[in-house]
Amino acid sequence: MKSKELALLEKYYGYKSFRKGQEDIISTIVNGSDVLAIMPTGGGKSICYQIPALIFEGLTIVISPLISLMKDQVDALKDMGIQGELINSSISAIEENKVINNIKEGKCKILYIAPERLESSSFLNVISNCNISQIAIDEAHCISQWGHDFRTSYTKVSGFIRLLKKRPIITAFTATASEEVREDIVRLLNLNNPKIFITGFDRENLFINVIKSGDKKSYLHNYISNNKEASGVIYAATRKEVNNICEELCTKGYSATKYHAGLSENDRKKNQEDFIYDRVNLMVATNAFGMGIDKPNIRFVIHYNMPKNIEGYYQEIGRAGRDGEKSECILLFSPQDVQIQKYLIEQSIENIERKNNQYNKLNQMTDFVYSNECYRKYILDCFGEIYDHNCDNCSNCLNEGELVDKTIDAQKVLSCIYRMKHKFGTTMLIDVLRGSKNKKVIQFSFDELSTYGIMKDYSSLELKNFINTLVSHRYISLVTGTYPVLGLNEKSMKVLKSEEKVTFKEFKVEKKAREDNELFTILKEIRKEISIENGVPPYVIFGDATLKEMTIKYPLNKEQMLNISGVGEVKYKKYGEVFENAIRTFVDENNIEVSTHTKETEDAKIESIHLDVTTNKELFNKLNDIRCEFAKKEHTIPKMIISQNSLKEISGRYPTNLDQLKDITGMGPKKISSYGEKIISSVNEYILSNSQEVNWTEKKKKKVIIDGESREIHEIALDMLKEGKEMTLISDETEVSISTILGYVTDYIKEFGEVQFNLNLDEFYNEEEETLIVNSCEKLGYDKVSAIKKELPSYIKYEAIRAVILKKYFLRDN
Ligand code: ADP
C-alpha cells in the first residue's frame, strides 16, 4: 500500500516518487524527531517540511530569509490547494489581520515568516496561543558566522522557540555542509537530539565546465547566441562588471537584466521578477542574487569570475536545473579573478580569524580551478562525501575541446619575462612582445631585447588571453604586491628547457544547453498566458520538466495527465484541459499517432457522454448577489470570485455540501474555502424553501453542458462578434477579457485567413500608443506579445497591443 507521505506527494505535487533522502527525512519528522537536513540546492528541501506540515495537526512556521521570494513560495502552495500564508513587511495591516484570522481559525497549515518577525511582540502574542506543530528553518546556515550568508536576525530563532508554551518539532535545512556550520546550527538552534541527514551532494544533471583559456567576453557572447531561448544566470564578482556585461548584452539585443546590492530595492525586485516570470532570459548578477530563488528552469549558470569559495560556487551553480533537466555550469577563469577576490576579502572583513578562514577557502577554490581530476569528485570531497569514480559529466572528465600545442609561443613569452628580469606586469610584457614604441619600452631599452616584437602576429587581446591562460595553468606565477608582476617558476623553467610541452584545449561553443521542440514552445506560451492572468511565475503553473514530459507522452485525458510528473489533482482541475486541448490540436495537425490503450479508449468514451445542466435562474441570481458581495469586500470584480459558468452549474446541479461543491467545474480548494460555506448554505436554503427536488449526480469524466450550450468559450465569443455584438458587451457576458477575445480573433484569422465581421479596434488605443506599439512590434516581432508589453510603458494595456497587432498585421486589407 502507498504510504501517506507518498499519497500526499502525488495528490498535491503530482510527483510520482521521492527524491533521494526525502522520504527518510519526512518520516523522521513525522515520528516526532528534530532534524537537520543538508541537501544540495535544488535537492528538494521544501517538500521535506511541507509534507509533515500537511500530516501534522496545527501550524507549521517556516522561517526563511528572503521576503521577496515568500510570495512565490506561498503562491505555489496555494496553487496546489495547500493553505499557505505569509507575514512580512510587504503586506498591509489588513492583509496581516486576514492571515492572523486564518491562523486562529485553523485555516492555515504553513506560515512563512522572515526571522525579523520574531522580534514583533504582537506577532508573538498571536502565535504563542496557536498549536504549532513544526518550526522549519530554511537556509539554516544563516545562523552561523562561518556560513557565507550570516544573518544576525537568525540568532533570534532559538529565543523565540523557548518562548513557546509547547516546544514544536524543529527542523533545519541548508545546503552548506561544512562541519563548523553544521555544529553551529545544532547548537544555536538548540536542536533536541536531532537526526542529521546528509543526502549526498551530487547534482547529476549539472555539467561542470571550467574554462581557463580564451577570451571570456567572446565565449559568453557565443554561448548566449547559441542558447537564446534558455534561461540563464551570469555571475560576476563586482557591481561594475555586472553593469558592463548587462549593458553589452542588452545592446546586442539579448534579453537581460541585472541584480546587485547597488540597485534600489525596487529595481532589484522588478528585475528579479522579470527573470522569474520568464519576461527576460538572462540575469547578470553579483552573488547578492539567488538565495531562495526557486526558478526551476535555469538552464545554465555562467561564472564570469571565479567565486570566493567552493560553498558559494556550488550553491550558485545549484540554481541551475532544479527541475532535474540537464543544465550547464561554466566557470570562465582568469588569474585576475584571484586578485579580485583577495581585494574583496580585504575590503569586507576585519576580523582576522574570519579573514584567514576566507583566504583558506579562496585557496581551496583556486585549487579546484587548477585541478586536473574530476571536478565533481573535487567538490564532493570538500563536502566530505566520498565519490570514488569519475563523473564523465565535467570538462576534466570529458576532456572537451581540441588540444593544441602551444609550446613555442609559450617559450617566447617566458623568455621575454626572463629577459625583462621578472619585474613587470602583463601590459608591459604585451608591449614588448608586440614591438610597441611606447615611451617606457624605449626608456628601459626593451626594444633591444631579442624577444622584442616576436609576437606581432597576436593582437593585444589575444596575447593577453594567452598570457592569462599560461598563468591559469601555472606556467607563469603572478606575484602580488602593489601591482601584480609576472614571474617564472619551476614549471616555466621546464618549458624553457623543452622538458615539458604546453598544450591547451581550445574550446568551441557549439552545443545548445537544450533542444526545444515545437510543442514545448506552444505549451510554454500557454503557461505564460496563464501565469500573466494569475499573477504567478510560470513555474508555479507547471515546471519545464513537466511540460517536456507532456511533449513526449502526449497526454490527452485526465488519467494520462495525472501520470505526468508534476501534475497533481488540483493543478489538473485548474489547467489540465487547456494543456490537453493544445496537445490534441498539435497531435491532430501533425498526424502524430498516440497510442490508445483500452483504458484510454474507455475514458474517451466516457468523456463523450455529457452531463446536461439546466440553470435555475432564481437560484443563479441569488448566488450572483453573493458573488457580488464578496467582490465588493475584496475590491475586485465578480468574475474573479467565481466564474459565471460555475454559478450556473451550481444553480442547476444543487450541491448540498462542500464535497459536492468540489465536483463543480472551476471550484478549486481556495474558492471552496473562501466562499464554499456561504454558497452551500444558500443552495440548501433555496432547496428547503422551494421544496426543490434534488438528485445529486457526480460529474465523473463527463463534459458539463449548461443550458444546451456545447460551444467552447472562444466559439461563443466569436459567434457573438459575428452577430455584430460590441466587444465590451461580449467581454461582460462571457467574462473573458477583451485582450483574450482579441487573441481569439487573431487565432481565428491565423486558421481561416479572414474574418466575416466588423471589428472596431480604434477604440482600444490612441495614436501615440499605436506608434509605440508598432515600433515595438518591428523590433521584437509581432508574435511576442508578452515581450512587447514588457518593453512598453505600463499604462499601455494588453488589449491595446493585441488590437494594434490585429489591425496592422492581420487586417491590413480590410
Ligand atoms: P531546494 O532544496 O533548493 O529548496 P526545492 O525544494 O525548491 O529545492 O526543490 C527544487 C525543485 O525540485 C522544485 O521545483 C521541486 O518542485 C522539485 N522537486 C522536489 N521534490 C521532487 C520530487 N520528489 N520529484 C520531482 N521533483 C521534485
From TrEMBL:
Residues 219-363 form the Helicase C-terminal domain. Coiled coil: none annotated. It is an enzyme of class 5 (isomerase). PROSITE patterns: HELICASE_ATP_BIND_1 (PS51192), HELICASE_CTER (PS51194), HRDC (PS50967). The keyword DNA damage applies. It holds the Pfam family DEAD. Its cofactor is Mg(2+); Zn(2+). Belongs to the helicase family. RecQ subfamily. This is DNA helicase RecQ. It comes from Clostridium uliginosum.
